[in-house]
Amino acid sequence: MSFDPDILRKQFPILSTEVNKRPLVYLDNAATTQKPRVVLDRLVRYYENENSNIHRGAHFLSSQATEAYENARKTIQHHINARYAHEVIFTRGTTEAINLVAASFSQKYLKSGDEILISAMEHHANIVPWQMACERHQAKLRVIPMREDGTLDMDTFEKLLNKHTKLVALTHISNALGTINPVKKIIETAHHENIPVLIDGAQATPHMAVDVQDLDCDFYCFSGHKMYGPMGVGVLYGKEELLNEMPPWQGGGEMISSVSFTKTTYNELPFKFEAGTPNVADVLGMESAILFLSETGIENIAAHEKELLRYALDRLKQVDNIRFIGEAPERSAVVSFLFNDIHPYDTGTVLDKLGIALRTGHHCAQPIMTHFNIPGTVRISFAAYNTKQEIDILMNGLSTVRDMFG
After folding, report:
1. Per residue in 126-146, pLDDT tens?
2. Beta-strand (E) ranges in 76-130?
3. d(C-alpha 156, C-alpha 170), whole Å
4. CATH (one of 3.90.550.10, 3.10.450.50, 2.40.50.140, 3.40.640.10) for 40-294
5. From CA 314, how far away is CA 152, in angstroms rounded?
6. What is the sign of the dihedral through the CA atoms of 339, 344, 350 and 352?
7. Residue 14 pLDDT level (bands cut at 50, 70, 90)
8. What is the CATH number of domain 5-29+298-405?
9. How confident is the model at residue 287 (pLDDT cuts 50, 70, 90)?
10. 364 is catalytic
């Protein structure tokens, strides 16, 4: 299938928006992607024609909604190549998926003196839950250091693995730097020491095919809204044997098999980890987003974004006083930079007046900013619908910023 971003853009209603009487240039896709019409229509169709609580009702609407919900689970299973559909746990997003594992895995396996190993480039969502788990169980949090180009120090990683390491948790792609980590090698190395691995895939699933069986990861977490789907929904993939051993995280509703005042028995997978009324509409919206990705072609999207990244870097390198933060040889469609000693927030504010939406600040990755001794960065991040013309508009905007601040 040929790929034309100009045609693709027509599927995204919000891209016709004007900001301050200028066409919207949306370059904040690492924060959230915009939603194609097929996703929006799926949400409306559910609430107009299928709205019902699932699994518990015997009536037509409940049966219809239940079937659609469980079919969505199978769609996601096939998309990430999980072995079983019940290894797909629906959550509110990547953050909740990580918190689920941090709470439940730690309750089962973590004790005083044990260690959890994360990396120096993690999003706060893959730092704080492990800090909390370590505090609860008197364990230690260890950190894989990062080099100046924004890549991990793999030699030190191997040295940090030891008999006390109970789990490695790290990002597939850094949201602040765009670094693509060698997660398959990391998983192989950890598994050689019988250490399970959790991967934060929030920034990977919109940009590349993910095969959890090929990676052999033990847990993989991602969010719908980063990959053209709704907010407030995501996935925890976990290997069946680990999920079966882990205790439930939340109680009530679907996660029970039977309840009395003296004892509760828990449901089988995946329901053991899906307490309460599920977010049916957004699960179906996420399924539509995945079908959109499949039909568009993840390879087409990756090639287009790679070309955008190359073009943006070539243009930015021609500008005086640009400092790139993170220059890994293997990187996703993210560019973080500082411009002309101007505070990132000031740069972002001026660009917003010109209709250009991008991200400024620490990107929920404060340890990265501390590493580089900076307050934050200006971050541009691309998606399938972005164009070279938008990069040209950005460059003109940066000229305006320079003229304003001198």
Report:
1. 999 999 999 999 999 999 999
2. 88-91, 115-119
3. 15
4. 3.40.640.10
5. 25
6. positive
7. very high
8. 3.90.1150.10
9. very high
10. yes
